[in-house]
Amino acid sequence: MIGFQAAVLVMAVMLGGVLLLSLLRLKADLGRQKVKPKFSEIFSKSRAINVLSAARFCLFSARDVWFVVALPVFLYDQHGWTHWTVGGLLAVWVIGYGGVQTQAPKLTRLIRGMPGR
Fold first, then answer.
1. Helices (DSSP H) in the chain: which residue ranges?
2. Which residue ranges traverse the bilayer (predicted)?
């Protein structure tokens, strides 16, 4: 509605306002731990939990690389899709995936035969 350059300028001004408010209102120790844990204390005592955590880390990393890099490049390069088509598909996918995730608890309750809310 206002054009690309004006939109970038509006966004920069708004981000500057957020930065200014953050500097004025947030406490300096926000997000800092009182006691810093040792590196070995970050992990669980259970080997199975640590293996599961490592597997999830690898799985989500691979998924992110696939959706952020590989799939858009593949669709653009191999299928000749435009940037708008690739971006539109990924936007619809993310929105649809989020919608499915919001319904997952209801679906699992339904499958298990438990009463829903």
1. 4-25, 39-42, 47-65, 71-79, 83-112
2. 6-26, 47-75, 81-100
**Distance of alpha carbon 73 from alpha carbon 69, whole angstroms:** 6
Q: What is the DSSP letter of 26?
A: S
Q: Locate 92 and state its tokens.
A: 């619809």
With tokens 């593949």, the residue in question is 74
Our CA angle for 42, 46, 51, nearest 5°, is: 80
Structure tokens given for 37 = 């844990």
pLDDT tens sequence across 107-117 = 888 888 876 55
Residues in the chain, total: 117
2 Cβ neighbours under 8 A, 6+ residues apart: 10
Show the tokens assigned to 80: 């000749």
Q: Which pTM does this prediction carry? A: 0.50
46-67 confidence digits (pLDDT tens): 999 999 999 999 999 998 899 8
